[in-house]
Amino acid sequence: MKIAIFNDLNDTRKVTTFREILRRHEVYWITERFFSASDEGNLRYVRCAYPSRKLKEKSRVHKLLFEGFKLASLAWPERFLPLSADFPVFEHGFLSDIDVCLPVSDFALYALLKLRRDHGYRYKVVFYDAETIPFLQMRRCDMRHVWQEANHSVDHFLAWSTRVRNKELIEGVSDDRISVVFTGIDTGLFSPGPCTHSPDTPVLLTVGKIEHNKGIRYCLEADRELMKRGMKFIHVYIGTGKNLQHYRKLASRLGLDRFVKFAGFVTEEQLIDHYRRASVFILPSIRTRAWEEQFGIAIAEAMSCGLPVVSTCSGSIPEVLGNTGILVSERNSREIAGAVSTLLKDPALCRTFGRKARNRVIDLFEIGKVSRRTCRIIEKVAGKSAD
Question: Start-end ranges of CATH 3.40.50.2000 in the chain?
């Protein structure tokens, strides 16, 4: 069976998620950039020049782009999806031989559905859906008819979580076209290690974009509250973002220079080391009208490393965390400080949460289980097994 995965993000974790498919089938990975990882199994990387995000956000182009899904007169995909010089991805010969197309972005989804409709291709379209907010795509008038048609045209949805599945049901997708497939975590890589921090100075850890919707402000205010209580700690923030400098300045104004470190971008090896050094993981994400935490990969990675987690009820976080950590109210720095204080004062509770968290990840999110389940679903949708 031939499968084409359209992913315009340079994310090697998704390669791992599909590794059972790579082992059993011929896979073309259509991407904007080549991956640094070596090829796995039957995987072939194909470079395709997707438009930049800035181009997509220009209103005139944006309107043409999505209305083009319904307008047969629009030159698609040549106008918006330039063909690779090395491999003409969208020419008839390639797509006519594909059994399953798996778009990871809305952009590729609309293009593939229109091409199938206009040219009579027989490939199945399986959409890897992470969005948790119902009708979010339909809030834009120029996209409403597009998303409605897409919902009825997709052969099967792979939902990141039960919350995503429930969103799809609300939007009118039939239950038999939805399968919940959690994001996979490599539990061999993200695993507990020897404690290397000083027992007198526990390490708090936050991983994610340094932006407002990750609750960074309330983390810093909680740090100040812990400082006022006379607690010793160091809080490491890993990640980059447009608000990084703003929060560095805020930390200084709050008198946290000795308690807070912004580490910026780190390698995966360094990230795992930070997880293993930490005592508590904190991610108090905040819901907005157009965003909530779709899964919380950093939370699952921390859990896999045996860390107790303090977080909020944003999006799919409660489903990921289960009863292995502490959930606090959004935008509430005192509750964050209280939860962290409770954990730091009770090492036995930390160990219990950490052990339960690790077991939960192994049971639900272990990459091998996720990969095999994904492969079985796609084979069933295509009506084919390994050749």
Answer: 2-184+367-382, 203-364
**Maximum mean pLDDT: which of 8-12, 60-64, 360-364:** 360-364
DSSP state, 139? G
Q: What are phi and psi of 338, to 5 degrees?
A: -65, -40
Residue 165 CB partners (closer than 8 Å, separation 6+): 157, 159, 178, 180
Q: What integer pLDDT is reported at residue 151 of this predicted model?
A: 86
Distance CA 12, CA 83 (A): 23
What distance, in Å, lies between the first and last C-alpha atoms of the chain? 7
In this prediction, residues 150-163 reach a mean pLDDT of 94
Following DSSP, what letter does each residue of 315-347 receive, concatenated? TTHHHHHTTSEEE--TT-HHHHHHHHHHHHT-H
For the domain 203-364, what is the CATH superfamily, name and number? Answer: Glycogen Phosphorylase B; (3.40.50.2000)
Quick count: other Cβ atoms within 10 Å of Cβ 366? 18
Question: Would the pLDDT of 91 be above 60?
Answer: no
Structure-block tokens of residue 17 = 């998620």
Q: Are 165 and 138 in contact (CB under 8 A)?
A: no
CB-facing half-sphere around the CA of 226: CA atoms within 13 A:
31
Encoded tokens for 147? 């998303």
pLDDT digits (tens, 9 = 90+) for 269-319: 999 999 999 999 999 999 999 999 999 999 999 999 999 999 999 999 999
Non-local (6+) Cβ contacts of 148 within 8 A are: 138
Instruction: Check whether 60 has a pLDDT greater than 60.
Output: no
Assigned CATH for 2-184+367-382? 3.40.50.2000
pLDDT band at 160 (very low <50, low <70, confident <90, very high): very high
Backbone angles phi, psi at 15, to 5 degrees: -60, -45
Q: How far apart are CA 90 and CA 71, in angstroms?
A: 18
pLDDT of residue 23: 83
| Burial class for 368, CB neighbours closer than 10 Å (0-12, 13-18, 19+) | middle
